[in-house]
Design brief:
Helix content: 25-40%
Low-confidence stretches: none
Strand content: 25-35%
Oligomer: single chain
Largest sheet: 6 strands, antiparallel
């Protein structure tokens, strides 16, 4: 049987909206208002906003076969895509391509007898669209319930650069650990941008993580840094006053000792932490969340690889749990 649009919506986590376009279901992690901000300000960010980071199917079924067709398009500065499919929490299929040449495909998996949980993680750094979602005939089907709602805000590291296994980036690992319907609203290269805070977003999170600052420090003058951080943190604390908000200060980076037009990395980190604390937000020191060894970074200086994301998540989870 082929799943209907309503059934696809039931099993999808990590989206603000799903639409049927040219026979494919397309998945959006930003509201129309937020997309308009990026469309009007940055073609690069508008493209990245269409990446399917954090989006996944999650359901129970006793089907003997599960499959779907897909198409992918570039939505970042990285030229690869991968899907991860788990059965009962075990990775059963990792499929994709680097570099991206064949951008259409079919994924099929045979399932053992009985009811099983199936989870499909979409690419973090490409835009994936899906059609012909199929379960073998006369099979049962129900979505996996979730315990929390969550939003992850940030830059490239939160979006998932450069995880080759999308399920292993830290935001997706948080979603798995807390069994959360997590919407990833991170954009590679982004800074504190108060304009993307949408007061009308219908998704009301229990938990929010905020992880900006490294691009602000490396690219902004002091006044612009201060204005952006102040407006964003004040805005999110007001709009989501009923949510637990965790502000993660910038991670270690190999060039942390250089002086930018803002000034010192350490001063930038301190400013973000002090501002967040003054608003009553929970502050997590990011400096020691990832190891200070090049081998944990895909570019040897900034973006964690799959190994680095594992350490990031392992250190981050208990710091969030102790405040929940």
């Amino acid at each position: 049987m082929y799943l209907s649009e309503e059934q696809i919506k039931e099993i999808t986590r990590g989206v603000v909206n799903i639409s049927l376009e040219d026979d494919y279901y397309r998945f959006y992690r930003f509201s129309d208002k937020q997309l308009k901000v990026y469309e009007n300000t940055s073609a690069g960010f508008f493209s990245k906003a269409k990446a399917t980071s954090g989006i996944n199917f999650n359901f129970y079924t006793d089907a003997s076969k599960f499959s779907f067709d897909f198409t992918v398009s570039n939505a970042s500065s990285r030229n690869f895509y991968y899907f991860d499919i788990y059965v009962d929490g075990v990775l059963e299929k990792h499929l994709g391509e680097s570099p991206m040449w064949i951008k259409n495909g079919h994924i099929e998996i045979n399932l053992p007898e009985g009811e099983h949980q199936v989870t499909v993680w979409f690419p973090c750094l490409a835009c994936a669209a899906i059609k012909n979602v199929f379960l073998s005939e006369n099979s049962s089907f129900r979505p996996v319930p979730y315990k929390k709602k969550m939003i992850c805000l940030g830059d490239s590291i939160t979006q998932g650069y450069d995880a080759l296994f999308p399920s292993l980036c830290y935001a997706n690992r948080l979603a798995q650990h807390f069994n959360a319907n997590m919407i990833n609203q991170a954009i590679g290269g982004e800074r504190f941008c108060p304009q993307i805070l949408d007061e009308d977003l219908r998704f009301k999170p229990d938990l929010i993580t905020v992880a900006y600052g490294t691009n602000d420090w490396s690219g902004l003058q002091r006044d612009a840094f201060f204005a952006g951080a102040d407006a964003f943190l004040e805005g999110i604390s007001r709009i989501y006053s009923d949510s637990k908000i965790f502000v993660i200060t910038p991670l270690w980076r190999a060039d942390k000792d250089k002086i930018t037009k803002f000034g010192s990395y350490y001063e930038a980190v301190a400013y973000i932490a002090d501002k967040a604390k003054s608003l009553g937000l929970n502050v997590i020191d990011g400096y020691n969340l990832t190891p200070h060894y090049f081998e944990f970074y895909s570019d040897l200086r900034l973006h964690p690889n799959d190994l680095g994301y594992g350490e990031y998540t392992r250190n981050l989870i208990p710091l969030i749990e102790e405040k929940l």
